[in-house]
Automatic annotation (TrEMBL):
Pfam family, one: bpX1
The species this protein was found in: Hymenobacter chitinivorans DSM 11115
Lineage per the UniProt record: Bacteria, Pseudomonadati, Bacteroidota, Cytophagia, Cytophagales
UniProt-recorded name of the protein: Uncharacterized protein
Domain MoxR-vWA-beta-propeller ternary system residues, every copy: 39-211, 745-825
């Protein structure tokens, strides 16, 4: 603006925010962007202003150091060329003043910037980025001066008092005109001061893990755990619940499923009392609340208007009866018919009803004691329905009598009438005259009658004053409940005990390349807060939590079908697989390095037909198939409801078909190498896969060397380098344990060394020299390769190795210790 005046040259704000003439960064877009000298953006002005303001309370470090840390936090740091800009600037300064000190601190600063970039995105982006800056630049780093031993450089840092005015002046725009002009020419000590700020942080946080620990906990090391008390080993307890025991045994799993249905369907009526019995005791008190039938008789002496006024104003008086000291609990008896008509399906149906009646009685308030009897042809015998062995023994009880009339009369004469008795028998017997005569004679000893039929119909009757009244009727699909396979939760996917060492690790020690995935709304699900979940062409379930990491394999194989996905947005993903053959829910843990998997089979719960609709809402799957439906609660991990009037409206799951973003999220620019027919060692001693040569590509910093699969040009002199005089011969092809769609091709060299090409984008190498650990590498083109050795050592970018590990080697070191030894065993 024309009325703005240029600040004086000694102004601390101008000295701090102005870019030097010959430095690694400059202002662009009228001071709105700070960029590298090569034109790549470092930071926007708004972001830089927030960071400097957050540091102002403790004194602001040099602006160059702040910009270097901002560059390390951005996703584009590895490809920005900033490392090259700094190296070129250091070379110019060294030419003026030869010193090894500048190169040392440059290497230290670049190593720290790589360390910061390896942090999880949530620790170096968003609001938590300010915490990172405050930890990296404590008050001690804001000393006024340059390198150690140098004279103070005014304007390199800002004290608390200076920072308030400088920030206000910069934010107001009064510095914009001055910032369009470059500052003075600076020397090596200027760059050295910025680099030393990052070196000081590198001394305090020499690894990504230590820095992440500090940011998450405020601690520099995890406290040592307390010594664990010595606890004697206790064998795993068997399930104590009877239904759980019945579910785990294949002989009684169907009986358990049917019992669970009947527990919900059977309702035991309240005990009926005689007409002369009072429901409560005597009069305990007078109150102004109650029912009209308990009004004091004196209230009725008032005229109508007065009585109405007293009722409305809660002034009328009522009698309050005395409550009994404890509710009366009547014992119950279950009479199970075991005669000829109950053989087959009715016998199992009746036993399930007896178990359900017993369970409801024992879980009532208060619980009622239950005694069960088996009715044969002549007498009633006690049976045990409270233990697994007792239930199995009851299933084996058979009597050749036509009906249990004689045994029913024997029970009526020998047992007191104080118990509420239930008779369970076949519905057809209600048409048999001989049995009806016995039932009429014994009905004074019975309170309820429950009949079952082979078609799955259940009817409950109540006896009152010698008359039988139908209370309820229910129908069940006995064939589906009794014969369907039991619901299961498969155990954790166990690695195979043979084959490449990589396959025997759980979880996989490397992240996977993206292979065999055609992105579509049917198999790919993306949510920014969670990441990407996809089912590949070979039915693998892969998960990418962040764009800067490879894929985690949550499931080696999942059933084909339609997939519905939900999440709790923090630690779990839920996948429902639905088709005419399968209906199953998977719970996939994504909150830690251990990928926990659980599943439950719901196919037996619904009729066999196509799934009409699936809705995920409030952490529940609402499923309708045919004429039946259910609600599965993913958090409680059980069926919440089976009779649903209608499905709710589909809520937004948060998973979007943003395929452009998804493709960038699951692939950082590489191409997987899949079709491999030849591999070995060329005449130069390089390992070759197809016509791609495994070579070390050196960068300006020795810590950034990486291995690549390079493709020589057909016209170049190095084209012959792809010839393979020491080639491996194809031996056979097998499949991956756990997924028969994944191919494993085995090659062998004459000396006994082997290679296994894994169609998931991996190559496994086993040397004939037993002292050389097995090696696994990623087969990708266009990006650095990652390696894993069977002793736990890794090499390569964290995109495939995950977070930085202690057993991590640089590419030259890994080559000398592992690859060169493997190649030597092939040539010798």
């Amino acid at each position: 603006m024309s009325n703005q005046s240029t600040p004086p040259t000694h102004d601390p704000a101008r000295l701090y925010f102005q870019a030097p003439t010959n430095y690694f960064w400059r202002w662009a877009e009228a001071g709105e962007i700070a960029e590298w000298e090569n034109g790549v953006t470092i930071s926007y002005r708004d972001e830089l202003q927030v960071v400097v303001a957050a540091l102002a309370a403790r004194g602001v470090p040099p602006l160059g150091a702040v910009l270097l840390l901002l560059a390390a936090c951005s996703e584009g740091w590895p490809t920005s060329g900033g490392q090259g800009v700094l190296a070129g600037l250091a070379s110019v300064f060294k030419g003026r003043k030869g010193t090894a000190e500048l190169q040392f601190y440059l290497n230290q600063a670049c190593r720290f910037m790589d360390l910061v970039h390896a942090l999880p995105p949530e620790l170096r982006t968003g609001p938590k980025k300010l915490h990172l800056f405050q930890e990296v630049f404590p008050p001690a780093t804001t000393h006024r001066g340059g390198a150690k031993g140098q004279k103070p450089t005014v304007g390199r840092t800002l004290s608390f008092e200076e920072s308030q005015g400088a920030l206000a002046q910069w934010a107001s725009g009064r510095l914009d005109e001055a910032l369009r002009q470059n500052g003075p020419v600076v020397g090596a000590e200027y760059l050295l001061a910025d680099l030393q700020c990052l070196d000081q942080a590198f001394q305090r946080f020499p690894s990504t893990e230590l820095l992440a620990l500090r940011l998450r906990t405020g601690l520099d090391q995890v406290p040592a755990p307390l010594p664990e008390p010595v606890v004697p080993e206790v064998p795993a307890e068997e399930p104590t619940d009877l239904l759980d025991q019945l579910t785990q045994d294949p002989r009684t799993a169907g009986l358990a499923r049917l019992t669970q249905r009947l527990v919900a369907a059977l309702r035991i009526p309240l005990h009926t009392r005689q007409a002369s019995e009072q429901p409560l005791g005597g009069i305990a008190d007078v109150t102004n609340r109650g029912n009209f039938d308990r009004l004091l008789l004196s209230e009725l002496a008032h005229d109508d208007l007065t009585l109405m006024a007293r009722l409305v104003n809660n002034e009328a008086l009522y009698l309050r009866r005395e409550a009994p000291p404890a509710p009366e609990v009547r014992p119950r008896a279950v009479l199970l018919d075991t005669t000829l008509r109950m053989w087959g399906v009715p016998r199992v149906f009746a036993l399930a009803a007896a178990l359900a009646w017993t369970r409801n009685s024992q879980h009532g308030r208060p619980p009622a004691p239950v005694q069960a009897y088996a009715l044969g042809g002549q007498q009633a015998e006690p049976i045990d329905l409270a233990s697994f062995d007792g239930v199995v023994e009851t299933l084996s009880r058979l009597d050749v009598a036509l009906h249990a009339g004689a045994a029913l009369l024997d029970f009526a004469r020998s047992q007191p009438a104080a118990a509420d008795s239930l008779l369970i028998t076949d519905a057809e017997l209600l048409r048999a005259p001989e049995f009806l005569d016995a039932l009429a004679e014994a009905k004074t000893a019975l309170h309820y009658l429950l009949t079952v039929s082979r078609s799955g119909e259940l009817q409950l009757y109540e006896f009152h004053n010698g008359h039988r009244t139908l209370l309820s009727t229910s129908s069940f699909a006995l064939e589906e409940l009794l014969l369907a396979p039991a619901p299961r939760r498969p155990q954790r996917n166990l690695p195979p005990t043979s084959g490449p060492a990589f396959l025997q690790q759980q979880p996989a020690p490397l992240l996977f390349p993206t292979t065999g995935l055609r992105v579509s709304p049917r198999n790919t699900f993306y949510q920014r807060a969670v990441g990407v979940l996809a089912v590949t062409d070979v039915q693998r379930v892969l998960y990418w939590p962040y764009p800067h990491t490879g894929a985690r394999e949550l499931l080696p194989e999942i059933e084909p079908g339609d997939y519905s996905v939900g999440t709790n947005c923090t630690t779990e993903l839920y996948v429902l697989v639905s088709s005419a053959e399968v209906l199953r829910v998977y719970r996939l843990g994504i909150g830690g390095p251990e990928m926990e998997v659980e599943s439950v089979d719901l196919d037996a719960e619904l009729t066999h037909s196509e799934v009409v609709e699936v809705v995920f809402k409030d952490l529940c799957f609402y499923v309708r198939r045919g004429a039946s439906n259910l609600v599965f609660d993913c958090q409680a991990w059980n069926i919440k409801e089976r009779a649903l009037a209608r499905l709710p409206e589909a809520a937004s799951s948060g998973f979007k078909p943003d395929f452009g973003r998804v493709k960038r999220h699951i692939n950082n620019g590489y191409t997987p190498l899949l079709r491999i027919k030849r591999l070995g060692v060329n005449g130069s001693g390089d390992f070759v896969v197809e016509h791609h040569v495994l070579q070390l590509r050196r960068k300006q910093s020795p810590h950034s060397d990486d291995f690549y699969l390079n493709s020589p040009s057909p016209n170049s002199s190095s084209h012959r380098a792809s010839d393979i005089p020491y080639a491996a011969q194809f031996v056979d092809e097998s499949t991956l344990p756990g997924n028969e769609r994944v191919r494993l091709q085995r090659f062998r060299w004459p000396g006994g060394s082997e290679a296994v090409v894994d169609s998931r984008g991996l190559l496994h190498l086993r040397s004939a020299d037993a002292s050389v650990p097995e090696i696994t590498l990623t087969l990708v083109l266009g990006q650095p390769l990652a390696f894993w050795a069977a002793d736990g050592t890794v090499c390569g970018p964290t995109y495939f190795t995950g977070v930085a590990r202690e057993q991590s080697l640089s590419a030259p070191e890994f080559y000398e210790q592992y690859l060169r030894r493997f190649i030597s065993s092939l040539i010798d």
